[in-house]
Design goal:
Protein name: L-ascorbate metabolism protein UlaG, beta-lactamase superfamily
Structural class: alpha/beta
CATH architecture: 4-Layer Sandwich
Strand content: 25-35%
Pfam family, one: Lactamase_B_3
CATH superfamily: Ribonuclease Z/Hydroxyacylglutathione hydrolase-like
Radius of gyration: 16 Å
CATH class: Alpha Beta
Organism: Dyadobacter koreensis
InterPro entries: Metallo-B-lactamas, RibonucZ/Hydroxyglut_hydro, UPF0173_UPF0282_UlaG_hydrolase
């Protein structure tokens, strides 16, 4: 699988013959100023929750690519009102089959509201099973035993966790989460964007390594293979 990191918690995975984008927040991120959202490919866009730093560019990219936006019922309804044409609702506990494979929604422990302050439903994460491999994106979350449900549904090739602390899990809890979901490869997200989530990358990589885990921290705009 090819993974491209676009900064903060935005990344895409090419799997099952499709490009799957997660939590598009690019134009508001100074660290991602060299990324042109008009050049981003997407067949599907998964939105984990309603905070601006996870959905700012979803409408623009969806309209540009024709991608299907997937999120909980409130997110589904919100983007429908924003004029997005292709939408699919997926609430925690639900699963659906797409042309790339299967996706199942899992609850996250996090707050969620739309930019106007409106209720954005329950924050979520997503596990995907594809012909090229399986992975889990937790979305913004604290450490929760609900993560132990993921490997009951599918074995993972990698997981994507927030590691910036303060607003989400930090390194220590993300290491614990890797054990809960039973994977040794972690793509770290949700760090450095704001002053209170700065990360010492070298120390983080070393801490994961002490537990026999590989922490992947690609540069913004970089594509890696897993």
């Amino acid at each position: 699988m090819k993974i491209t990191y676009y900064g903060h918690s935005c990344f895409s995975v090419v799997a099952g013959g499709k490009t799957i984008l997660f939590d598009p927040y690019i134009t508001g991120n100074e660290l991602a100023k060299d990324v042109d959202i008009n050049s981003i490919a997407a067949d599907y866009i998964f939105v984990s929750h309603g905070h601006f730093d996870h959905m700012l560019d979803a409408v623009a990219i969806a309209n540009n690519t024709g991608a299907t936006v997937i999120g909980n019922w409130e997110i589904y309804s919100y983007f429908g009102k924003e004029g997005v044409k292709n939408l699919f609702p997926l609430n925690p506990g639900g699963k659906a089959t797409f042309d790339f494979g299967d996706a199942k929604c899992f609850i996250s422990q996090h707050s969620s509201s739309f930019p106007d302050g409106g209720y954005a439903g329950v924050a979520s994460g997503f596990a995907l099973k594809t012909t090229d491999g399986n992975f889990y994106y937790s979305g913004d979350t604290g450490l929760t035993l609900d993560m132990t449900l993921i490997p009951k549904w599918t074995a993972l090739d990698f997981a994507v966790f927030p590691i910036g602390d303060v607003l989400t899990m930090g390194v220590e809890d993300a290491i614990e989460a890797a054990g809960f979901v039973k994977t040794t490869k972690i793509l770290g997200v949700h760090y450095d964007t704001f002053g209170f989530i700065k990360l010492n990358k070298e120390e983080a990589i070393a801490e994961f390594a002490k537990s026999g885990l590989t922490l992947l921290l690609p540069k913004i705009g970089e594509t890696i293979d897993i």
